[in-house]
Amino acid sequence: MNRRRQSPLPPPLPAGGLRVVPLGGLGEIGRNMTVFEHNGDLLIVDCGVLFPEEHQPGVDVILPDFSWIRDRLDRVVAIVLTHGHEDHIGGVPYLLRERPDIPLVGSRLTIGFITAKLREHRIRPVTIEVAEGDRRPLGSFDCEFLAVNHSIPDGLAVALRTPAGLVLHTGDFKMDQFPLDRRITDLRGFARLGEEGVDLMLVDSTNADVPGFTTAERELGPAIETVFRTAPRRIIVSSFASHVHRIQQVLDAAHQHGRKVAFVGRSMVRNMGIAAELGYLRIPDGLVVDLKALDRLPAAKVTLVCTGSQGEPMAALSKMAAGTHMIDVGPGDTVLLASSLIPGNENAVYGVINGLTSLGASVVHKGNAKVHVSGHASAGELVYCYNIVRPANVLPVHGEARHLRANADLAISTGIAPDRVLIAHDGAVIDLIGGRATLTGSVPAHNVYVDGQTVGTVTEESLEVRRVLGQQGVVTVVVLVDPDTGQLTEPPDYLTRGFAHDEQGFDGATPVIEKALSELSGPAARTSARQEQAVAAAVTTWIRRVKNRAPVVVVVLVDA
Fold first, then answer.
1. Which of 175, 203, 320, 360 has the fewest CB within 10 Å, making it most exposed?
2. How high does pLDDT run on average in the chain?
3. Which residues form the Metallo-beta-lactamase domain (predicted)?
């Protein structure tokens, strides 16, 4: 099992070889993006986002690092999108800002979702709609698309044929044998590719550490039906805005129990409209109404479907929990969280649950009812796939470190040689040459932060400052200095925000500032910049020693 990180500079790709570079999705759940290079052409599979955690304040989403391909965007023949979840398509608008005419290849629903998203970014994409069973050349790559079952309709795996070998990328998948849309994972196609000879298989790792087989989606029906049968007042369902199957079950239950439904949240309204228009969501006549129409109905006849299942601060459910949404949640209401917890979001989600509970609502979630099943293959399904495909080399993708390792162990357990199973990281360079995949180097794959309208300007250093501001506060020191002597003309003023201090305040810091200024010597050392640095360092050290805190210290120096 090859886990060693090589030189940061990969060698040139040998003629006829295939290079595989995951720029995201290895070591995290999100920002999935893999670049394939052959014969001078680049093919990208997925371009998603990662949602920020609590230690990344002010960040909206996190993108893959495009720097490795930025000066070769003219060589990108297409972006293949395996399905329509944000962690696979959310980064597309930001990449197309740099080259808008890159063709987007995907299934009908996926193209519908990404086209609507790009419309909001004022980008008109070049799209190529494909379906399972299609085979299409894209530059130097001969691409075949296979149906896979996931928690969103129309998921695809993609097989890439080049003279260097056959690669199978599963995308996100599971092996639900009773899917609501009757579209099962094409295991016959997987087996057929196995007979042809798969040289490298990139495999979804998200549930690799979960034994057995993933529960079928239709098994959620009884739990959802129970909620609709027993809820005394309004039902508020929160789900991913792309979770069409789950929302279909909610609509069916609402219709059965005589409730009307309204969608809440821009992305939910947009995506469900697209899904219904394309025939992926079946809505009985008169079931879905405008939000305002619900005011005229008894509470026991109302169902709301909204976003916010991950505790996102700006999503509808989070605002309801905080009491800042137009919809007031109260006693007798039932809130159904119909999605899993994305790792890193646990605290935010439980904060929302606590807020809703405090308002008197009954909250039904994965922890107390069977209202969610995963969209990813568990260990038993992955082993089954390895046994029917028998790939020569395996690269686990889409998962945190523990998921990648568990997936690698599963591959080895089926008889694949340990040195043919690669545990890689974002930015790793894998070359497939002569039927063997090896790690040959790495390229930059840093987190790229989106903050409002800015992309890439937020750094790890600025995030650290934000964390300090949030945890320790800020102290502003206003000092009046004689420009001739370089000394204080009067005691400094200390202004604080978010920093607790006693009545004596900063009396002890003034002598420290005087000493720091007196130690500066020569005209160059007495520049304003140098004086500000000296004061900031002195005050920071004094606060850390005396008050055991480390706030951000800002110095405002004024010539007296």
1. 360
2. 88
3. 30-224
